[in-house]
């Protein structure tokens, strides 16, 4: 029987299969990178707000503590959006006629809340509790980034599951003393800049010069659950 295909067809077939594999792999890689990119996650993208509130001015400049506005962050699953009355505590005395703040004054007069756009907004199928993270020694800027340097608020992280799991798999890399949770300028310990903790027996203090040692100590003191527990699906998807 005569040969139907030329011998070169074998080489063409091999090259075609290899090219198809490379193309599919490349498209899959591109899709994964796109899914992680700010185009999808909006990480680093400032959100439009009814009033251009500047954390850089209020936190970094004036030194307001996070809890002045986000009053429930230590005791609730939600950080909370401050009511207009909180804004008017100051702005009934300063910048009283600024056109920029007219939406705030109108909200206060009418009793109708301002509609803020959440920068750090998780899907409805994700369970997240602010209070447990705060009380276990996770700092505000660990998740939210340098808020005190943000003229307009944006989400620093992708807020995707792989980002959450990075911390849940090794929480000792991020924990800090509870009294430093709201310190936006906190720096992890080094030999040049140790971090002190009161001794467990209440006598003296213990110096830590490495984050791994400090983190493991805090995991014990703050009674963190095991990595198996905090990476369990049911921990965040209930």
From TrEMBL:
Question: Which InterPro entries does this chain map to?
Answer: Cyt_c7-like, Multihaem_cyt_sf
- Give every Cytochrome c7-like domain span: 126-238
A Pfam family for this UniProt protein?
A: Cytochrome_C7
Recite the UniProt keywords alphabetically.
Membrane, Transmembrane, Transmembrane helix
Query: Transmembrane segments in this chain: where?
Result: 12-32
PANTHER family cross-referenced by the UniProt entry: CYTOCHROME C7-LIKE DOMAIN-CONTAINING PROTEIN (PTHR39425:SF1), LIPOPROTEIN CYTOCHROME C (PTHR39425)
Q: What is this protein called?
A: Quinol:cytochrome c oxidoreductase pentaheme cytochrome subunit
């Amino acid at each position: 029987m005569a040969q139907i295909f030329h011998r070169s067809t074998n080489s063409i077939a091999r090259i075609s299969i290899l090219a198809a594999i490379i193309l599919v792999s490349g498209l899959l890689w591109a899709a994964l990178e796109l899914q992680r990119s700010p185009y999808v996650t909006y990480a680093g993208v400032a959100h439009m707000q009814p009033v251009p509130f500047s954390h850089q001015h209020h936190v970094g400049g004036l030194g307001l503590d996070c809890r002045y506005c986000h009053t429930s962050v230590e005791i609730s699953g939600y950080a909370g959006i401050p009511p207009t009355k909180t804004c008017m505590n100051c702005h009934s005395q300063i910048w009283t006629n600024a056109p920029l703040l007219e939406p705030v004054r109108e909200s206060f007069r009418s009793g109708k809340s301002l509609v803020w756009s959440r920068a750090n907004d998780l899907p409805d199928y994700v369970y997240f509790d602010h209070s447990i993270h705060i009380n276990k020694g996770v700092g505000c800027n660990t998740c939210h980034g340098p808020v005190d340097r943000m003229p307009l608020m944006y989400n620093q992280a992708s807020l995707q599951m792989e980002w959450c799991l990075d911390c849940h798999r090794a929480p000792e890399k991020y924990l800090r003393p509870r009294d430093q949770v709201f310190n936006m300028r906190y720096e992890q310990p080094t030999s040049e800049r140790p971090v002190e903790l009161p001794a467990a027996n209440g006598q003296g203090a213990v110096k830590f010069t490495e984050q791994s040692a400090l983190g493991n100590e805090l995991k014990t003191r703050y009674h963190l659950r095991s990595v198996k527990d905090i990476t369990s699906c049911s921990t965040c998807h209930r």
